[in-house]
């Protein structure tokens, strides 16, 4: 079962703004009379690579329930959290700090035993359905 990430409108505006700024920074210098084709190709490659990864994460960010773990993936990033390692789930509005795989201001923070961060912030579109499914697979959560 796969749950898509909720995306706030402000997040989309920030992503578009970053793309415009990156594009301007990379392509405006090419208007100078001494710019070369090589510089244009390098600028185009950097722009496509940087914005491509950004939008790849946006389009593919989701959370899927596997047999023995929760798979959180977005773009080239993938994280597996074993159900037996999940200790607690709580609502969060901590947008800036922590390890986040979400594109919304609010969401859920999953605390787990293994891993570098010991918690991950996510924002499934159907939060109630996601929590119900997670509790089925992690009986230790109870009525968290």
TrEMBL record:
Keywords recorded for this protein, A-Z: Membrane, Transmembrane, Transmembrane helix
Segments forming domain Uncharacterized protein YyaB-like PH: 62-138
Segments crossing the lipid bilayer: 12-31, 37-57
Source organism, top-level taxon: Bacteria
GO biological process, any: bacteriocin immunity
Entries under InterPro entries matching the protein: PH_YyaB-like
This protein's name: Uncharacterized protein YyaB-like PH domain-containing protein
């Amino acid at each position: 079962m796969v749950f898509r990430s909720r995306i706030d409108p402000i997040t989309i505006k920030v992503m578009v703004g970053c793309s415009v700024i990156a594009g301007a920074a990379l392509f405006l210098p090419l208007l100078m009379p001494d710019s070369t084709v090589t510089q244009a190709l390098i600028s185009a490659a950097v722009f496509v690579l940087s914005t491509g990864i950004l939008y790849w994460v946006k389009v593919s960010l989701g959370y899927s329930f596997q047999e023995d773990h929760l798979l959180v993936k977005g773009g080239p990033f993938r994280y597996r959290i074993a159900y037996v390692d999940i200790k607690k789930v709580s609502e969060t509005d901590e947008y800036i700090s922590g390890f986040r795989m979400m594109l919304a201001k609010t969401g859920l923070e999953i605390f787990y035993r293994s891993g570098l961060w010991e918690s991950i912030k996510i924002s499934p579109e159907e939060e109630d359905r996601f929590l119900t499914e997670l509790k089925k697979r992690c009986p230790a959560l109870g009525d968290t």
